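Lab notebook, bench 4. The sequencing result for the construct came back, and we need a structural model before the next group meeting so we can plan mutations. Quick request posted to the team channel:

Model the 3D structure of this chain.
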Amino acid sequence: MENYMICNCKQVSYADISDAMHNIRRFDDVLSAFEDVQKITNCSTGCGGCHQKVLDVISDIMNGAER
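Done. Here's the predicted structure in token form:
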């Protein structure tokens, strides 16, 4: 898995989002997972410019991109 910065304001990387996803017991959809990941990592709480990138990463992880 390649690690790169997703949220520059809060210094949240792909690995940080992945770790947060693995700490969530279950997630039904991307938006609810986003809220949980945001609570854990504080991503997308600065300028908000990474919002779509965070959603894309969550969607990729939910669809098994890490397997």
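The two ends are 9 Å apart (CA to CA).
Will bring this to the meeting.
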